[in-house]
Every structure is written in C-alpha cells, then in structure tokens.
Design a protein that fits this description.
This protein has about 375 residues and is α+β, with helices and mostly antiparallel strands. The chain has two domains: about 250 residues, L-amino peptidase D-ALA esterase/amidase, CATH 3.60.70; about 120 residues, ArgJ beta chain, C-terminal domain (Ubiquitin-like (UB roll)). The chain has eleven helices and 15 strands. The strands form two sheets. Strands 1, 2, 3, 4, 5, 6, 7, 8 and 9 form a nine-stranded mixed sheet that branches. It has a six-stranded mixed sheet with strand order 13-12-11-14-10-15, sandwiched between helices. Helix 1 packs across helix 2. The radius of gyration is 22 Å and the shape is globular. The N and C termini lie far apart (about 45 Å). The model has no long low-confidence stretch (mean pLDDT about 90).
C-alpha cells in the first residue's frame, strides 16, 4: 500500500469543496463531494431510534445503489425537527443537484452538530450558489466536517493500481451500533453495488463498531462509500484496503476523543468465538473506570478484570492474563509476583496505551479503540450548544 497526499479527491473524477457559509461562526461548515460519473454507492447508519432526516433521505436515494454527490452540513444536526427538517434536507439535495447538474436522487446528505434546531435554510441556500465552480482536487473538505474535533481526519492509498480515500469527523457522542460519526470514502475500484454494501458493512463492524469515546450513540452517524468503478481489482485486495482505511479513521477518532489525552487500544485474544472477544474488548474500552485510570496513569488492573467480568461471556478466571504496554500484570487471574506499579505507571504516560487481555481458552481475537477520560470532557459537554 502506498500512502497518497490527498483524501477522497485522490480518486480520478472526484472533486470536493469545503467552505464557510454561516451555519457556524467563523468556521468551515459546508462540504460537497462530487463525481464526474454516477457511482456504485452504499452506506451504513446509526441505529439510534431518533434519526436525522439526512439518514431517511440518504436511505431513500440509495435504494438503487447509485450516487454522484454527497453534501454535508456541519454545525446543525437537523434532528428532532419533524416534517420541516425532512423537507429542508430534501430541498438541500435538490438545490445542490441543480447547482452541480446531477439528479436530486443521486445526491446523498449528512448533517452533524447541535440537535433540535432547524437548519438556517436562507444561509444554506445562499451558500450553495457558486459551488460548482469551487469544486477542486485540492480542498478543505475534511476541515469542513469538524465540530468538537481538534484535528481533521483524512487518508488516501494506492493499492495494486486502484485508489481509495477517506475523510471523517468524530470526537464525542461516539459509541456506534452500526457506524459512528461521519465518514466518507471514495474509490475507483470496480465493485458492484451489492458487494460494496457487503464489504462496507463488514469493514465497519470490525473498525467503527469497535470504537467508543463516551458510550453515546449519535442520531446522525453514517459511513458512505462511492466507487467510480474504473479499475479492475481483486476483491481480497479491495477488502484489505477498505479495512485499512476504516481502521485508520477509527483510530484517529479515538485519539481525538473529547477531552482525551491518550488513545487506548484494547485487544482481547484467546477467546472461543470472535463475538466473545468483541464483547469483552468493547466492555473494557467503554468502562469509565478504566478510562479514568488510564488518564491518571494508574495501572489498576482490577478495573480491567472487572470490565471483563461485566460481559455475558463465559470464561475461566484462573486462565486470564492481562498486559499493559506489553508488560504482564496478571497471569492465571492473579497479579504477577513483584508487580512494579511505579514502572507501569510511567509507561502509561505516553499518547497511546495498549491493553491486552488473553482469556487463554481459544484462538479468536478482537481489537477495540477508545480514549481516556480527562477533565476537559466535562468542560466541552457542559457548554456544547451555548
């Protein structure tokens, strides 16, 4: 795999824009990703029972597995806005379609930001005007997605002749039950609409679905992919590249979690089933006690083993081993002799922390991504929306 400089625009025929139109104060808040030709497309969505109108519109537009553009509004989720919100989302798709000369049904839409407020349609309508001329290969599209994020998240790869790129946003309200945050992927790999949906679902399940910042599933989460179908590829190579991109974005979101000071990577191995390993890994990464311990550089393994036991997985306690930063702290379910808490505490002071739990009962494993919980998490969320 070769790392490229651009993002979604690394794919031939894809252009994008990111700009400020006034939804947010002084920050970029509007994006379009556009393809010269109609693409095979697919998406996965939040399973929160309260869903953004953008999800309803996108689901409807993707019934034929095709799309040519994605429009993103940042700063207002347009959720809990009733029929008006649905009409507003539909109107935006029509206005964008008219501006860039595509069919309204071929425009997908996503929105992110504060819940419960109607979109400023007059501002958005004016902002759409002139967008076609602003589409380009070098752009600020990744920056335009951000809300409480502190860094933009983008990647592009070339693999065996085809390209794949992605941008994402996500920092808080992260605990997926299908996907999380917003992520947009483009590729020129020749993949059918049916297969692209299947491969995306599989990749999301092992990456974004194994990510947690704060145990809250958003109302607006989506992961979308569009393929120009230009390059013949081996399915195995495409799946590998798609998995790499999704895992990379998930890690970047975990590292940029609201108030976080370090990224946590939890691997559970030696499980009897893949599902068991996933459940325990997600339990550990989601534990507020584990997250706080990591923030304080506290090698309190009792919190980790408690999170293991808080799952509905059957295991043998006397077989469990636990490692922090590759240092064994528990073997056979008991603290290792001569446990050096001061040494482990110093190892936890870095920007990345590795937690490994070996159940020693099987051959399956899974990895989850998350972050510690710092003081700034409360500060951010106590004032969000003000």
């Amino acid at each position: 795999m070769k790392l490229l400089q651009k993002n979604v625009c690394s794919v031939y025929g894809i252009k994008a824009l990111g700009k400020h139109i006034g939804v947010k104060k002084g920050k970029k808040d509007f994006a379009i990703i556009y393809s010269k030709k109609l693409c095979s497309a697919a998406a996965v969505y939040s399973q929160n029972k309260i869903k953004a109108p953008a999800i309803e519109i996108t689901k409807d537009h993707l019934k034929n597995g095709k799309a040519q553009a994605i429009v993103v509004i940042s700063g207002n989720a347009n959720v809990a806005t009733g029929k008006t919100g649905l009409n507003d989302a539909d109107k935006i798709c029509k206005l964008v379609a008219e501006e860039i000369n595509v069919k309204p049904k071929d425009v997908l839409i996503a929105s992110t930001g504060i819940i419960g407020k109607r979109l400023p349609m007059d501002i958005i309508t004016r902002g759409i005007v002139g967008s076609k001329k602003q589409l380009q290969k070098v752009n600020m599209v990744a920056e335009s997605l951000l809300t409480t994020d502190t860094v933009k998240k983008e990647i592009a790869l070339q693999v065996d002749g085809f390209k794949i790129g992605a941008i994402a946003k996500g920092s808080g309200m992260i605990h997926p039950n299908m996907a999380t945050m917003l992520c947009f992927i483009t590729t020129d790999a020749d993949i059918s609409s049916d297969n692209i949906k299947k491969y995306l679902t599989e990749a999301v399940d092992d990456s974004f679905n194994m990510l947690s910042v704060d145990m809250d599933t958003s109302t607006s989460d989506m992961v979308m992919i569009m393929s120009t179908n230009k390059k013949k590829v081996k399915k195995t190579h495409f799946k590998e590249a798609l998995n790499h991109v999704c895992h990379d974005m998930a890690k970047r979101i975990a590292a940029d979690g609201e108030g976080a000071t370090k990224m946590l990577e939890v691997t559970v191995k030696g499980a009897t089933t893949k599902e068991s390993a996933k459940k325990i890994a997600k339990n550990i990464i989601s534990s507020n006690l584990v997250k706080c311990a990591m923030f304080g550089n506290d090698p309190n393994w009792g919190r980790i083993i408690a999170a293991v036991g808080n799952s509905d997985v059957v295991f043998k306690e006397d077989k469990i081993s636990i490692f922090l930063q590759n240092e064994a702290i528990v073997k056979g379910g008991k603290e290792v002799p001569n446990f050096d808490g001061h040494k482990i505490s110093n190892l936890l002071k870095g920007k990345e922390v590795s937690i490994v739990v070996n159940l020693n009962q099987g051959k399956e494993k899974a990895t989850a991504y998350g972050c510690d919980m710092g003081y700034n998490y409360i500060h951010i969320n106590a004032q969000y929306g003000h």
